[in-house]
């Protein structure tokens, strides 16, 4: 099981212009081992540590088990692809590097990513700013089929 910890320090806060900047917490992606019943069976491994930069918001997995992460860092916004061990395989920039300033000035910050199904199984759908993009890729998305018991 993969978890993106995007602790920007603002949960439950109603910021005002006079408040100090929130203290950020972990900006990491973890892998938790699961047993045959789907329960967590050991400690998590850190796959990506974004440090003080904003971490990932959305994620999806391809048929080979690689993760596609939407990276919201103002220094390097984009779509990061890593293998199950956390090694970077690819990066698709979605906005200019080294952005600063106010929220209204941000450009190309991705939020979610998902593979299509059927004829679109090789298509990534990515939300960036107020737009939806699609990107054809060489791999297929992973989609677990749930079947209810009779």
Secondary-structure topology with pairs:
Elements: E1 2-6, E2 27-31, E3 45-49, E4 56-61, E5 67-71, E6 78-82, E7 88-93, E8 110-115, E9 123-128, E10 131-136
Antiparallel strand pairs: 1-2, 2-3, 4-5, 5-6, 6-7, 8-9, 9-10
Organism: Gimesia alba
Keywords: Hydrolase
Protein name: SMP-30/Gluconolaconase/LRE-like region
Summary?
The protein has a single domain, classed as TolB, C-terminal domain (Neuraminidase, 6 Propeller), CATH 2.120.10. The protein is 0% helix and 37% strand.
Strand content: 35-45%
Between the first and last Cα atoms, what is the distance in angstroms? Answer: 27 Å
Estimate the global geometry from the Cα principal axes: globular
What's the domain count? 1
CATH class: Mainly Beta
| Derived structural class | mainly beta
InterPro entries: 6-blade_b-propeller_TolB-like (IPR011042), SGL (IPR013658), SMP-30/CGR1_Lactonase (IPR051262)
Domain SMP-30/Gluconolactonase/LRE-like region: 28-127
GO molecular function: hydrolase activity
Keywords: Hydrolase
Structure description:
- The chain is mainly β and 150 residues long.
- It has a single domain (2-8, 25-136), classed as TolB, C-terminal domain (Neuraminidase, 6 Propeller).
- The protein is 0% helix and 37% strand.
- It is built from no helices and ten strands.
- This is SMP-30/Gluconolaconase/LRE-like region.
- Residues 28-127 form the SMP-30/Gluconolactonase/LRE-like region domain.
């Amino acid at each position: 099981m993969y978890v993106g910890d995007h602790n920007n320090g603002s949960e439950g806060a109603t910021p005002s212009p006079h408040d100090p900047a929130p203290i950020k917490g972990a900006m990491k992606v973890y892998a938790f081992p699961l047993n045959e019943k789907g329960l967590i069976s050991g400690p998590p491994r850190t796959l990506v540590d974004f440090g003080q930069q904003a971490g990932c918001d959305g994620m999806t997995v391809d048929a080979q088990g690689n993760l596609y992460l939407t990276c919201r860092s103002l220094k390097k916004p984009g779509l990061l692809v890593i293998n199950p061990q956390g090694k970077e395989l690819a990066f698709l920039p979605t906005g200019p590097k080294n952005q600063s300033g106010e929220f209204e000035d941000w450009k190309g910050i991705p939020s979610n990513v998902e593979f299509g199904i059927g004829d679109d199984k090789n298509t990534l759908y990515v939300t960036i700013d107020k737009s939806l993009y699609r990107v054809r890729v060489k791999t297929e998305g992973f989609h677990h089929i749930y079947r209810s018991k009779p």
